[in-house]
Each structure stands twice: as C-alpha cells, then as structure tokens.
Amino acid sequence: METNILAQTKMGIGTWSWGDRLYWGYGKGYQEEDIRRVFQFCVQRGINFFDTAEVYGQGRSESYLGQFVREMDKPIFLGTKFMPYPWRLSSKSLEKACKNSLQRLGMEKISLYQIHMPLPPLSVESWMEGMIRVYEAGLVSHIGVSNYSMEQTQRAFTALNREGIPLTSNQVEYHLLNRKIEKNGLLKMAKDLGVKIIAYSPIAMGALSGKYNEENLPSGYRSRRYNRQLFTRIRPLLLEMGRIGVIHDGKSVAQVAINWVMCKGAIPIPGAKTLEQAEQNVESVSWTLTRDEVALLDDLSDRYAVEE
Q1: Of 16, 106, 140, 221, whose CB count within 10 A is highest?
Q2: Buried b (16+ CB within 10 A) or exposed e, 98-118
Q3: What is the DSSP track for 7-51?
Q4: Are the C-beta atoms of 210 and 242 separated by less than 8 Å?
Q5: Residue 37, number of CB atoms within 10 A of its CB
Q6: What region, left, alpha or beta, does residue 268 occupy, with left being phi > 0 and alpha being psi -120 to 50 degrees?
Q7: How far apart (Å, rounded) are the C-alpha atoms in residues 106 and 71?
Q8: Those residues with Cβ within 8 angstroms of residue 8's Cβ, 6 or more apart along the chain or in another chain
Q9: Mean pLDDT of successive 10-residue segments in the chain (308 residues)?
Q10: Per-residue model confidence (pLDDT) at position 221
C-alpha cells in the first residue's frame, strides 16, 4: 500500500472559527487580521496542514483560507469537507459542492476532500461514487471521511479500493475526555488500513486548555457539555497534566493534551483564533511525552474522564 500523504504530518490547524459568527463569535474579539496572523505564523513555523469545510462560517472559512494561501505562496496541504445534507439526493451534488468550494478557495484542486459526516438517506457507497468522480476529474488529490464508524470506514475504504484509490483519512473527535475510537477499535483498524486519524477538538473545546475549572466554566453550548460536575471529576487528570507540563520545560495543560493525541498516532487539528493560541499550538510539536506519562494519563482518563 502506498504511503499515506499525511504520514509525516504531526499537527494541523482547524479553521472552524474563521469567519464563524454564530458559534465562535467572529468579529467579537478577533477579526480577519487576527486569523491572517495565525495562518502566517503557523506556516512560518512549519505547519502546512489546514482543515476547513463548506459549512464553516457559511463558506467564509474557505474564502479566508484560500486568500491567505495565495498571499503566502507556500506549499499548503488543505482539507475541506462536503456536508451530505438530506436534501442532497444525488452523488452528483457532491461534484457541484466541490466546485463551489474550489471557487471560494480560489484553487484548481483540493488537497484532501472529505465527507463531513454519514447522514442519511444516501449510502456510504453512493457518496464514494461522487468522490471517485471528482477524483478522476482532477478536482481533488486525496479522499477522506469524517465522523465515520468502523463499519462506515471499512465500507468507504472498500468502495474506493475497488477503483485503486486509497482512503486517506477519517476525521473524528478524539482527546483525553473522549477516547471512543480507542475503545471501539476504530483507531487500530484505521492504522491497519493505512487510514490516518485526524483528531478534531484535541483540547475538548477548551476543557483541556487549563483555563477552566469548577468556578470558571466555558460559556455557551460548551458549558452544557463541560459543566461543573465534569470539572470536579477530572480535577486529578488536569492536575497531573499540569505537573507533566512543568517537567517538560513548562508546557501548558493544552500542550500536554495535544501532544498526547500525537503520541497516539493521530493528527491533532486544534483551532486558533489569535496569535497567542497559535503559538501555544505550535509549541506542542517539538517535544514528546514519555511512554510512562502517556500510560498515566490513559489511566487517569479511564478513571475520571471518559465520556458516556
């Protein structure tokens, strides 16, 4: 099997927040110039994988990312995603959406095109037909999926493999508070198939950033998912992450969380709205947790933090 194009990629940057006003409050606390600086800094520090989607900021994320890529004139591996809304009733709709993404990006070819999630009514195989069509048309270089289960990943892999096309990646939520892909075998299966796991929300939407606790909770939707009871429960994990960070030349809790994902063989794609966040992310790459530290964090995660 050919080497996965992402095999040497340690970390990427997720751009959900770029232009998203509804969920992330774009325009309130960060603007276009902030995310431009984030992009430029990350590229200058060797990060060349950026992930977006047609639905992020209603297309604004793709537009900003494409603009920044052209301004830098550097080789960038860019992933975007197609949302299989239930009213998209034909795999041909994927080709139209792909061309729309290319127009917003201002590019002729997408490095990695992914199915955002496995929504009904069309089957996995039907969407892979659409993916094969845009691949053979030269519109995309690599094919991926997102939020696919073990069964769905295998079906996508098989459908593409019949045409001699590799399945490059499966993008899923993965962090110390959510280790489902370890428990259900998806992480191992992906490794066996040569499919790279791209881990979104590696710091659990900020819950593993080190700045939140029982008295200082995340705001909005995040406060319902990561509430006071959870922060009380995971206190031993957060304390240990802080201790480990100190040992590694003062790394932050967030940097420990991101590095743990890399140690598991997945590619974390933390988001960044500001230069400070970008600097934090980039400093997660140049060092590595020890096997004993990973095992200790695994144990504390199992005892206190695994999601229902």
Answers
A1: 140
A2: beebbebbebeebbbbbbbeb
A3: TT----EE-TTTT--TTT-TTSS--HHHHHHHHHHHHHTT--EEE
A4: yes
A5: 16
A6: beta
A7: 12
A8: none
A9: 80 96 90 97 96 97 97 93 96 96 97 97 97 98 98 98 98 97 97 98 91 74 76 93 97 98 98 95 97 98 78
A10: 67
> Could you tell me which residues come within 8 angstroms of residue 161 by beta carbon, excluding any fewer than 6 positions away?
167
Long-range CB contacts (< 8 A, 24+ apart) of 20-23? Answer: 20/56, 20/57, 20/60, 20/61, 21/57, 23/220, 23/221
- The sheet with strand 196-200 has its strands ordered as 13-14, 49-51, 77-82, 110-115, 140-146, 167-173, 196-200, 267-268
Q: Is the peptide bond before 84 cis (omega within 30 degrees of 0)?
A: no
Report the catalytic residues.
Answer: 56
Q: What are phi and psi of 165, to 5 degrees?
A: -110, 130
Question: Which H or E element spans position 231?
Answer: helix 228-233
Q: 29: exposed, middle or buried (C-beta count within 10 Å: 0-12, 13-18, 19+)?
A: exposed
Q: What is the rounded CA–CA span in Å between residue 221 and residue 216?
A: 15
* Prediction pTM value: 0.95
Q: What is the pLDDT of residue 308?
A: 47
